[in-house]
Amino acid sequence: MQTFMGYERADGTAGIRNLVAILPSVSCANPVVEAIAREVPGVVPLLHGHGCGRGGCDLPGHSGTLQNICKNPNLSAVLVVGLGCESLSAARIETVTAVANRRVERIMIQEAGGSGKATARGIEIAKELLAFAATQERTPQPIDKLIIGLECGGSDAFSGITANPGVGVASDRLVKMGASVILTETTEMIGTSHILAKRAVDEKVAAQLVAMITNQEKKTQQVLGPMAKRIISPGNQDGGMSCIQEKALGCICKAGSSPINQVTAYGEIPSQKGLIVMDGPGYDTESMTGLAAAGAQIIIFTTGRGNPIGFPFVPVIKVVSTSKVYNHMKDDMDINAGTVLEGRGIESVGDEIITLIEKVLTGEQTKAELNRQNGILCLYTQTTAF
């Protein structure tokens, strides 16, 4: 796979989906966004619970994440809906997106004369943007425009020996082909900094990895005290996991063995190719939002307990760790890595993942897409509200 059929965007990126999104700049605009989406089938509402009442690093962090969300290649165009008195600027989101040569429009509820008038105008704009999207066509795109995000959620004791290593095989092959792969969830790297640092492309990246993981470990100790070594969910424990180090050793398997070329902030678009590590939380929906903001066109999500959640405009491939869960939740899971426990080789799991990626690139829907497991945008929050 040297190329894929994608929708080339004006900024040089390429999407594998061709969607129109409606993004509220603040949660107060969610009802108008929902009203527009009800009247215009085919648009994607990007609901979230943020946009105001926060300070510190959260406000610029949330703003930057939403700006990068608007630039994700899977989106052909975006309508930003603001209220008019929020902290997070809808005008700023529009400007940054437009500067990146991406199609974007904006309406403000207070300026429009209220929610009814804003909804009516939003319906008109959404239809115009759908007509614009319909003019876009798939063309051959080089594989180096492809970014794959890696995620795990609802892990169990088998995740680290079936699903995650299987994804690791696929990750190495994708990097070798020229694609980029992003590993995130810093909390779930605690205890592995010495392993990841050895894979860094240079000393600077190694130091960044160690600092990133050390900083996250300090935060967990401040919040959880003596319980910091556990920080795993009840489902993880029920699935046979004992501590965060055990989960972390399985988590990093998703990134295979390729050199780590860059460390990025949450939601930051990488400037390098190959394997990237993004600083981010272990909470699945926050983590996936960061991967989408970083430009990922596909997310590979491993699970042991069976987490069906997807993402509004990024196809999510579910790789499950056991045949038991796969057979029990077959409508939600895409790939059964549990057959490794029955004698199947890890390499063949990687083969199956690559084959499915090739199909998804050309339009085949994942189980999460078919089931409309879209979820919502969930932005990484590091400070308390005021």
Spell out the blueprint of helices and strands.
Elements: E1 3-8, E2 14-15, E3 19-24, H1 30-39, E4 43-45, H2 58-70, E5 75-82, H3 90-99, E6 103-108, H4 109-112, H5 115-133, E7 138-142, E8 147-152, H6 163-177, E9 180-183, H7 193-197, H8 203-224, H9 234-238, H10 244-251, E10 260-264, E11 275-278, H11 284-293, E12 298-303, E13 316-320, H12 323-328, E14 335-336, H13 346-361, H14 367-370
Parallel strand pairs: 3-4, 3-5, 5-6, 8-9, 8-12, 9-11, 10-11, 12-13, 13-14
Antiparallel strand pairs: 1-2, 1-7
Word description of this protein:
The protein has 386 residues and is of the alpha/beta class. The chain has 2 domains: 19-135, 3-Layer(aba) Sandwich (Rossmann fold), CATH 3.40.50; 142-370. It contains 14 helices and 14 strands. The protein has helices at 30-39, 58-70, 90-99, 109-112, 115-133, 163-177, 193-197, 203-224, 234-238, 244-251, 284-293, 323-328, 346-361, 367-370; strands spanning 3-8, 14-15, 19-24, 43-45, 75-82, 103-108, 138-142, 147-152, 180-183, 260-264, 275-278, 298-303, 316-320, 335-336. The strands form 3 sheets. It has a 7-stranded parallel beta sheet, sandwiched between helices. Helix 1 links the parallel strand 3 and strand 4 (43-45). Helix 6 crosses helix 13 (346-361). The radius of gyration is 20 Å and the shape is globular. The termini are far apart. The relative contact order is 0.16. The model has no long low-confidence stretch (mean pLDDT 92).
